[in-house]
Amino acid sequence: MKNRSRALALAVLITTAATGCAAGQSQPGNTSSAKSVTESAPQIVKSGFSTKGGNINVLMSSDFQTLDPGNSNYVQTANVGQLYYRTLTMAKETAGQPPKVVPDLATDTGKVSKDGLSWTYTLKEGIKFEDGRPITSADIKYGVERTFAQDVYTQAPQELNAALDDGGYKGPYKDPSAVLKAVETPDARTVVFHLKKPFAEFPALASRSNTAPVPKDKDTKLDYTNHPVSSGPYMVQSYSRGKSLKLVRNPHWDPATDPNRTALPDTFSFSLSTSQSTISQQLLANSDPNAITLDSNGAMQTSDSAKLADPQVKDRVASGLLGCNDVLSLNTEKLKDPDVRKAIALALDRQSILVQYGGRRFGELEQSPLNSKMTGYADPGLEIDPAGKPKLEEAKKLLEGKDYPKSLTYGYANNRDSYKNTGTVVQQNLKALGIDVQLVPIPAPNYYSVLASEQLPDMGRSGWCGGADPSSVRTSADPILGPNNDGTSYGFSNTSRYFDPQVSKAMYELRNTAGTSEELGKKWAEEFNKALKTYPIIPLIRSHTNSVVGSNIRNAQVGYFFGGIDLSIVGVEH
């Protein structure tokens, strides 16, 4: 999960938040003596609700990048996706805690062979698509096969694919006669994955959207986003790109097969073009008691922070610390000199950037995009100030005698003022180094597509949530800075396009190295930190979300991975 979104314990990129007060200053409801965000307990709005029925209005500032589970690496899509598709396993959210991998379409989290090279899954009985057809192992395999067609699905998650002994498979379209031997379907209810090397966290990879079933005869390639065939409790009734989405109950979903989703509302109605300032004001004023938002940090604006402590609002605030970390990605194809990148990192006033996120109510400064509780984690020892203060003189010294770009572009998603304001901080900081920064707005739905294209800006904010297994260094370190599936270039989620002949080769070889999670975690952390010390990315903020909901909303919790209201359990009084 890219701003990241973004892993259900996935690896994803997400869009992050903004609002608020200066770091370290007293804030309404968050005095200087209050607990840090890491110590604050998550707040769930009116839990314990179990009544079915009603409609929830989901207010969003922009459309989803895609609804196709095979072309998505984003947390917002994963959040809404759990309503209309299921996967072999599922990363089940608990507020304030890393997700736990549980069975979903499969009867368990997988059975591993003695040599660790094969994982077998048995599908539950009674699982069906929205048209009543049984979901079979062939549908699971075809869902995986599609994600290998990276010429078609440029945002397809690749962590699972990288682990498979795929034999150079390139998807089902270029050569329909090609066979993905790494996935076998000996019968209609059995799926067997064959790996290059043992992968202890494979059950987490099986929760990725790669394993969402897709009926081959319904595959319309890029048009599949308009109506993905449902295997979950809801299905698409109507979808107008950039305007609205309506989900209604899937009559063939059997709750007996799905203990993970309560599926309480009858319908979800998405508005996909409401400005964030309008969303925040509507939610604060409770003008629509049935409303929520999936926008990052509840679409709160800079001026809204104090309002969260208002007696009419505070009981409607779902909040929690996320497994999501924001970074400033530097295009290493443009900024090739590690000393220049380090100078940029040292010149940043990260305290001021935290202000654009809303101060400590909405996040905390980080020294690594990895979380310290991950197995094998090691402090990277970066020279950026933990308190966020710039080290301008050290930065200038690094640039002495260097030939470096005097003009750079900073790309930002155009759906939030704070994204632009963060760029303004960067612009001001780098002016002191003699670097002119041009701010380039990018339409929010296309933001990560642009980062993956030839229009990649020289710098841009991106985020990372969890990793396929949020307790594992490997499943975050590899996607963030690791190489592609064959080790010849930068990887899919590697927005800085970092590739080093030695470090990237070592990462590639680690993918094919056996060992315990702790042993491999330490090795991954060592190589990742080598890369991080060349500053292809600059750690910024670990997010803490506050999301206001309407007064009729129940069971509203902020997902550790999703960074927004968990749609799988939310309900509405009606």
From TrEMBL:
One of its GO terms (biological process) is peptide transport. Residues 100-470 form the Solute-binding protein family domain. One of its GO terms (cellular component) is ATP-binding cassette (ABC) transporter complex. The keyword Signal applies. Keywords: Signal. Residues 1-22 form the signal peptide. The keyword Signal applies. GO terms for molecular function: peptide transmembrane transporter activity. InterPro entries: Peptide/Ni-bd, SBP_5, SBP_5_dom. PANTHER family: ABC TRANSPORTER SUBSTRATE-BINDING PROTEIN, PERIPLASMIC BINDING COMPONENT OF ABC TRANSPORTER. This is Peptide/nickel transport system substrate-binding protein. It comes from Arthrobacter cupressi.
